[in-house]
Design brief:
two-stranded antiparallel ribbon, Four Helix Bundle (Hemerythrin (Met), subunit A), 9 helices, globular, single chain
């Protein structure tokens, strides 16, 4: 018998915190909780490696949590902010592209990322929604971000401690309602991938 109780690890509990904060972001209509989900998403892999508990089960759970927190939650917040046909269509496209992005990531074994990572896509979308009160602009941006996620553009990983510290600081600012720095970092990252792709 496949017993979840026997295979679940401490890193899986961190992943479940990601799911919980993503769900609460939807139920409470909260942008800040998605930023907190990003923190848990960053921590679960680190905890798994440090405790030597990396597993296929954990990878599947992580992928599901990302769909909730960085696909469904941002899409819902986009629609709930504007409640228009356009924002509904954009939200559906964004969420579907995020799910496709994660499905592709799950079967590939490559260095870096192919397509904009869904956490970066979520951060871009919710930062824009917080700063720009425009149904048209945010809906178009959601569709463009979705297309970036399923594109063939390669994006690098940034494991360096300096970048992690800067990014962590930007998330703290975003949680308390100052998302400018997070938006800037994610924009630079997204544009960098595009420029590098077309300069090949």
């Amino acid at each position: 018998m496949f017993s979840i109780r026997k295979i679940i690890t401490i890193s899986d509990y961190v992943t479940m915190l990601n799911i919980i904060t993503g769900l609460l972001a939807i139920l409470l209509n909260s942008f800040s909780l998605i930023y907190i989900s990003i923190i848990f998403d960053s921590l679960d892999g680190y905890v798994a490696r440090k405790t030597n508990t990396v597993s296929d089960f954990g990878a599947e759970l992580d992928s599901i949590s990302d769909v909730v927190s960085f696909g469904v939650a941002p899409a819902y917040l986009l629609y709930s902010n504007f409640e228009s046909t356009l924002s509904l269509i954009a939200a559906v496209i964004f969420c579907l592209c995020g799910a496709l992005r994660l499905a592709r990531f799950g079967i590939l074994n490559v260095k870096g990322f192919i397509g904009l990572p869904i956490p970066a896509g979520a951060l871009l979308l919710i930062s824009f929604c917080q700063l720009i009160n425009s149904n048209l602009i945010n809906s178009i941006l959601a569709i463009l971000i979705g297309l970036l996620m399923i594109s063939d553009i390669r994006y690098p990983k940034y494991p360096k401690k300096t970048f992690i510290c800067i990014f962590a600081f930007s998330l703290i600012l975003a949680i308390i309602g100052i998302p400018y720095f997070t938006l800037l970092l994610c924009l630079i990252y997204a544009i960098y991938g595009i420029v590098k792709y077309y300069k090949r």
